[in-house]
Each structure stands twice: as C-alpha cells, then as structure tokens.
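[Q] Does anyone have a clean structure-token version of this?
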Amino acid sequence: MKIETKRLLLVPCTEENVNMVLEREQSVGNHIYQHIEKLQEDQSQFGWGPWLICNKENTIWIGDAG
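[A] Here you go.
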C-alpha cells in the first residue's frame, strides 16, 4: 500500500519501513515507535496512524503525516 504524487511517496508506518529510515542514519519520533508497538499487538491498525513521506527522487525520508 502506498500513495504517490509527482514528487513524493507516502507509505504506511511499518517496522520494515522504519528500519529502512534508520539504516540511512535518519531519526524518527517517539510516536513512530509507539505506533509500531500498537501494530505488533493489533495488525488491524495497519494503514491507520502515521505514514512516512519520502522524496521520490532520492528516497530520503522527509517526515510523517497522520
């Protein structure tokens, strides 16, 4: 699941997506970790909560929404 615009890629906040952000030595807020914990307890929350926003050109994480 993803949303694309001309310049941006929005993906649901998952443990896998967050790990990709962290591998690039970028940081995420505590609310992201809290959402990951909720997802581990209840997979029905997938797609709800924060989405990660990336620049499509260089795939650098620029923020989150939701």
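[Q] Thanks! Anything notable?
[A] Residues 3-65 form one domain.
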